Amino acid sequence: MKFVHRLILACCTAMIVGPALAQTLETSFVCSEVRKEDGDGERINLADQGKIKLDGDKIKSFQWESSLFRTTHGYDCSIDEGDGVQAEVTEKGWRITLKNAMAARAARGYDSERGSNCSIRLERNGDELQIKPTCPVLCGSRNNFTALTVNTKTGTCRYDE
After folding, report:
1. Fewer CB within 10 Å of terminal CB in the chain, N or C?
2. Element (H, E) at 4
3. What is the pLDDT of residues 56-95, one digit of tens each?
């Protein structure tokens, strides 16, 4: 009888802990696109590159640079392990946040206020990974990183509107 109780306990533990431990991600991407702002306005170039390696809630590698270039100037957003990133496993993938968003912003020398939040949702759908940022704190003069979808097998990506 004790064996049955132990077996049930082990199965329940595996059902609860298993998904968080089994969820891994390893991908890198390089994207760029030229657009007209608002369809017919100024020409802008979007450029993103990154490398992500997660094992459950452990971050092995996380680096993303997101740029928007206009005719006369450019804007940058970037995040990496040095910013104090932390991962939380969710039903759809992960949520990346910062331990101390304002300290990460100050370390970059940004002097304008951009709020104090940083959350990047990584949602997996088969081979596709949607990257949904809400992280203005790590952007200089830009409002946010660019949302995009990455094919985790090929590294190709597309920008989401």
Report:
1. C
2. helix 2-22
3. 999 999 999 999 998 877 888 999 999 999 999 999 999 9
Residue 112: its pLDDT value, please?
66
Q: Are 160 and 147 in contact (CB under 8 A)?
A: yes
Rounded CA-CA distance 130/154 in Å is 14
**Tokens 């039903």 appear where?**
91
Convert 112-131 to b/e letters by CB count within 10 Å (16 or more is b).
Answer: eebeeebebbbbeeeeebbb
Q: Is the pLDDT of residue 7 over 50?
A: no
Q: 28 burial class (0-12, 13-18, 19+ CB within 10 angstroms)?
A: middle
State the DSSP code for 154: T
Q: Is 101 exposed, middle or buried (0-12, 13-18, 19+ CB in 10 A)?
A: buried
Residue 103 Cα distances to 21, 112, 135, 137, angstroms? 30, 14, 14, 10
